[in-house]
Amino acid sequence: MTITTRFKNSCRAAALVVMALPILVLPVLLLPLLLLPVLAGADSPGDADNAYLEQLQGEWDMSGTLGGKAVHYHASGERVLQGGFVRLHMIDTDPTSRYEADVFIGFDSQRHDFIAHWLDRFGAAGARVVATGKRNDTQLVMIFPYASGAFRDTFTLQPDSGWSLLLESQKPNGDWSTFASYTLARAH
User: Fold this and answer.
1) pLDDT of residue 2
2) Model's pTM, two decimal places?
3) How many domains does the chain have?
4) Are residues 153 and 120 part of one domain?
5) Cα distance between residue 38 and residue 18, in whole Å
6) How far apart are the first and last CA of the chain?
7) Collapsing DSSP states into helix, strand and coil, what is residue 13?
8) pLDDT exceeding 90 applies to what percent of the chain?
9) Inter-residue contact 103 to 118 (CB < 8 Å)
10) What is the extent of the structural domain holding 147?
């Protein structure tokens, strides 16, 4: 075999390898893209937990009792901070009271729990505590571990009628007592 023939055969072999390379490499490159929905967990608990929070969005009439006295708020829920939280904004409809609060609730998919920040007109002192909680079906229980005693906020989704929200304070002996109780119905 001459040097020229050997060179031509080497070139043909190299050309075949170059032409076959995309066929061999393409599946390796595409495999991670095909597995992405599986790896992301399309039906993960986080999806159901975020769907639960989605149902807080919209305009609400919020009525109930606070310390045994009747109260009425206008509430509005929306996704904020690029979807990381649902903010529930509440404002008292009584112009003499003017209680106002923003509650930020988000789901932590790494720890599989919820967190909440309750910010209101009483300022920074009451905003130092972050609540954590778990959801069980239609009920989300959040614990705010304040130094003066814990608060337990229970959000319950009522699929046909809206939400209920029960706020309880913990006594020094560990018992819980109702601080406030509300129902949220879609505003018309």
Assistant:
1) 65
2) 0.73
3) 2
4) yes
5) 33
6) 91
7) helix
8) 53
9) yes
10) 47-186
